[in-house]
Input
Amino acid sequence: MAAEHQRGTETPIREPAPDPPRVAWRKQMRTRVLDAARDLTCDAGWDQVSLSAVAARAEVSRPSVYKEFGSRAGLGRALVIQETRQFLVGVSDILHPGLPDTQACLEAAILYVLTEADSQPLIRAVITAAREGSDSLLPYLTARSDPIFDASQSLVLSWLATRNPQHDAATLETTADVIVRMTISHLILPAGDKQLTARRLAGAALQLMR
Output
């Protein structure tokens, strides 16, 4: 009886309130603009993408794009951040909990990055442009002060700290920094066999903690 009474008095879970119309429109507009920018970048490269073309493709006004992103550079940064965050989810799934052997686990994560980048249209477009001499979006992938680099390093650092709690913070941070930098470097200038590259990078990076 007590259990039945308790069930009868439970407070029903309320669904979150819908966004106000202006907020909902802004979210939808932002999504459409980023999708349009992504499609245009994959089709022709970022150097050929203008805010006018993005606005036309997204069916919004050019001033709305400026108001949301501030500039063409702001749009490019938001675009790469969105794509890379989704990409890092896959890396995290490999690292946590990951293979029991630390080097094998890191090797699998690096191999995922080197392989999966080729199947991600936007990331592939950025890397291809960099190889051909255009780096207009590349700094958002590689700049130390950018949230993308920080997110990548934080992910690797968290994994290293879990696997190697005996090491000091400075050693772990240095190792994480080297892992991220070397992996990005091999994305831009591939050395050949991805499996071998991943094995060598993992082994070299982990030597810093021995």
